[in-house]
Design a protein that fits this description.
By secondary structure, the protein is mainly α. It has helices spanning 2-50, 56-60, 73-104, 109-121, 126-140, 147-171, 175-183, 188-216, 220-224, 258-266, 271-305. The protein folds into two domains: 2-51; 56-305, Orthogonal Bundle (MetI-like fold), CATH 1.10.3720. Helix content is 73%, strand content 0%. Helix 8 runs antiparallel to helix 11 (271-305). The chain is globular, with a radius of gyration of 25 Å.
């Protein structure tokens, strides 16, 4: 009798746990569907409003006080240049810092404090990075309200993301890879460069692209350092005809970016400017989704080619 009673209690406990699992699964699916449907509804509204406005002239025209002739030329060029500075500044520094913390740094109190702070910095509001960039890059270093200041501000913003992604990707490599390299006489750097980095490249690239996808839509840091809301000219060209064929004058040029251009249009009462803002938002969403899709594709291809 006692055994049957125990089995009945065990079955009742298992049934309750299965019921809780089912309820949790249903709740999770409902939350996911609400999020997806909300995004799809907003995207569909943006698509309906903005799609008719998209044309070649929209991409090749400067902003204008007349909604029908306004375009996003200066905005998308500024966004491209700012993201170029962001990538050049954040990617090498972030990967290097991640490799050092994971493979070279001694496991002591100082390292633990640095690791905790790097992790916490990934969740700091973006406006804080804007204020830091305003004080350091704009005023202290004298870069002014330029593309360089904006790119470095966004680099600070995504740097913790790149560091954390690099560390997690390297940490996922089996210890046997390291031990095998050391057993064959490889140095620490040879192990990192020839084994760890190639195997972790998929995760690192995914983290980089996700960080850049976050930076491309940020507004608060750019507004803080003084991005222009209306600009009808382009920065100087990065290329020139005479040697050395490269020019860096564009780094110190004033700029605007896509989110700022959208903010400028959405703040106007005319319906035509609202349509322009929807079209620019559609372009920005497509750019962001493309970057995330590229991250998924790179992860799939690189993991498929890896043979442990």
């Amino acid at each position: 009798m006692g055994t049957d009673k125990n089995l009945t209690e065990i079955r009742a406990i298992i049934a309750r746990h299965k019921l809780w699992d089912l309820m949790f699964m249903i709740t999770g699916v409902l939350v996911l569907m609400i999020a997806i449907l909300t995004f799809m509804a907003l995207f569909a509204h943006m698509l309906i409003d903005g799609m008719p406005r998209l044309s070649w002239d929209f991409f090749t025209s400067f902003p204008s006080r007349r909604a029908g002739s306004a375009g996003i030329l200066s905005a998308w060029v500024g966004t491209t240049l700012v993201m170029l500075v962001t990538a050049v500044a954040a990617v090498p520094m972030g990967i290097g810092a991640g490799i050092y913390l994971e493979e070279y740094a001694s496991k002591n109190l100082i390292t633990e404090i640095i690791e905790i702070n790097v992790t916490n910095l990934a969740g700091v509001p973006s406006i804080i990075y804007g204020l830091l960039a305003l004080s350091l890059f704009v005023h202290q270093l004298g870069f002014g309200q330029s593309i360089l200041s904006a790119g470095l501000a966004l680099a600070l913003l995504i740097l913790p993301v790149v560091i954390v992604a690099t560390r997690e990707a390297i940490r996922a490599i089996p210890v046997a890879i390291r031990e095998g390299a050391y057993a064959l006489g490889a140095t620490k750097w040879q192990t990192v460069s020839d084994h760890l980095l190639p195997y972790s490249a998929a995760g690192i690239l995914t983290g980089i692209i996700i960080g850049l996808a976050r930076a491309i839509g940020e507004t608060a840091p750019i507004i803080t350092i003084g991005a222009l809301t209306f600009i009808a000219f382009l920065p100087p060209s990065p290329f020139k005809e005479e040697f050395p064929f490269l020019s860096f004058e564009w780094l110190m040029a004033p700029f605007t970016v896509m989110p700022i251009q959208m903010f400028n249009w959405i703040s106007r009462p005319e319906e035509e400017f609202q349509i322009n803002a929807a079209a620019a938002g559609l372009v920005l969403v497509v750019m962001t989704l493309t970057m995330n899709g590229l991250a998924i594709y790179l992860r799939y291809r690189m993991r498929k080619n890896i043979k442990w």
